[in-house]
Amino acid sequence: MQLWIKLVIQGCVPLSGVGRVLKILGEALGLVWPEVHYTTGRSWILRNGLSALRQRLEQAADWIWIADHSVQIGKTKLLVIVGLRASRQPAVGQALRTSDLQLIALEPMECSTALRVHEVFRRAALRTGCPQAIVSDHGADLLGAVRLWIADHPVTVEIYDVAHQLAALLKDRLQAHSHWAGFVRELTRAKLKMVQTDVAGLIPPRLREKARFMNIKPLIVWGLKMLRLLKRSRLDGPVAGITPQRLAEQLGWLEEFELALREWQEWLRLIESTLQIIRTQGYTAETPHLRDQQICLPPQFPSTAEFNSTVGAFVAATSHTVPANRRLPGSSEVLESLFGKFKRLERQQSKGGFTSLTLGLGVLVSQATEVMPQVFNDIMERTGLKNVQTWVAQYMGTTIGSQRRMATEAAQ
After folding, report:
1. How many domains does the chain have?
2. 33-42, long-range: CB within 8 Å, 24+ apart, which pairs?
3. CA within 20 to 30 Å of 334's CA: 282, 308, 328, 405, which one?
4. 3-state secondary structure 243-269
5. Is the pLDDT reported for residue 291 higher than 80?
6. 3-class SS at 278?
7. Same domain? 297 vs 338
8. Which helix (H) or strand (E) holds 102?
9. Residues 337, 95 contacting (CB under 8 angstroms)
10. 402 and 266: one domain?
11. Proportion of the chain in helix, strand, coil states, percent, rounded to 5
């Protein structure tokens, strides 16, 4: 059973493919594996996930919570709270990993408000005690809940995820820049013009709608690379079978934005340096000084120095909230990584809304595949399929898949 789960969680094998993988391994090694239908293996994952959600956690004053929502098709939002003890953080220089986390709360909700999230916080505190810090991306409902919590529990520190904070600062600067709107407009036109032509291999990356300002690096890198390509073609002739005239026709518009692209590249380097420092060092009283030492200045553009001052101010403000001689994480990226692993576990199901497989989040952080066999057996004995069915009925309600099946049956 552990091997079956490990192939799914660590080996990234689809649920329906584990049986075939085990058969191939068995034939190669001369072993006979019992045949397990994928729905049975899926139930093992759900039982382990529910066990992680119900696991007894240590009550302590140094818990750090990381909270965020995951959304898919439909009205349901999935509130997830993971955490770790401050005393058990990875060593300085190492970013948080999903294996460092414990699953604290898992709450599907159709209407997420500050009061609803605050109620989940209250129940989560019954498992861990009052947290020392809560890290979030400042979504409206999460931020409201965190501030309600801190009003009653002033010992808790509010940490704004550094990646979202930097993206918000970058958004303000880019939208105020005289060339940004024109660059986005020309980028869209170029993609439409190039998509079914002889230069389709040079199409710009997609400008994402969601979290756009956290994902613009590929656009900047593409623009600067295409400018180098234009210059090389003028000196050396055709590149990749494309004449200089053809390249200029399709990409010549980029030359108007060359200085702006180099300026934005400097901003991105500043952001990446700050992200890396907070991601691997966390926040302490020394963080502002450490960041100042590691940021490479002077820049080519005055605007970068201004941006550096703005970033430095927010890092200093957050660092000042950290208690003396303490270190707190400043990034919720590990939870984003967990959501990514969850979508990989769901595969095609992620397009159909949340299902009972949400309990798989518990397995992704519980290390169920690494425990001793007797411990694993105890987990399976304590948490049966009926426990899973009860949880699903209580928290999941009618899923998108169930709705489709009922509608199909009614239409026949």
Report:
1. 2
2. 36/4, 41/4, 41/5, 41/8, 41/15, 42/15, 42/357
3. 308
4. CHHHHHHHHHHHHHHHHHHHHHHHHHH
5. yes
6. helix
7. no
8. strand 102-109
9. no
10. no
11. 65, 10, 30
